[in-house]
UniProtKB/TrEMBL annotation:
GO molecular function: DNA binding
Protein's UniProt keywords contain Transcription: yes
Taxonomic source organism: Hydrogenophaga laconesensis
Tagged with keyword Transcription: yes
Region (Disordered) location: 13-41
Protein name (Swiss-Prot/TrEMBL): DNA-binding MarR family transcriptional regulator
Protein keywords: DNA-binding, Transcription, Transcription regulation
Amino acid sequence: MSDSFFGHQAFVSNLRNTPSPGEPAPEDAAPSQDMPGAELVPPANMRSSWLLVHASHAVRMKIESALKPCGLTGLQMSVLNMIKNRGGSSSAELSRRFFKTPQAMGQLLNPLLEQGLIQRAEDPDNRRVLRLTLTDAGRKAYATGDAAMRRLERDVFSRFDDETLDTLRASLYQISHLPSHSASAKRKDD
């Protein structure tokens, strides 16, 4: 989803299910959710998909804040992570992975190239393909960003015991691998 979708203030306000100043609180709103140490319980009428979107937005904002001192955005860190873990990627592979057009991916990659964090080189197996790899500066930036992400994860998930965190991770992984509507329709037609 686009950054403007997640950044839309009215949308986020509706997700929080909080009244405007002077309005009475909804009857189904969970009491004392803002109190430190209080158990957080979602309103009974809030759909799981909205909770997931809201949680994603909250974590994205924390990620952006944690990576800002490193000079990276969350998306840039994700791109560096993919390039690092795959031993190099093409721009086309990144475009597909991040659901971006080639032009949009080029705009995302340009600052990383200009900062000297990534470099392009011919693929030895196919000279028409340019592989992106991390430079020494890119590996250092990645390491700094990764340390910030580890601190962030400890903070965000500190309320969860290991078993709950394992269940959450497995559930999120399953959700992230759901086939899209168009992909499932395409398979039926094949």
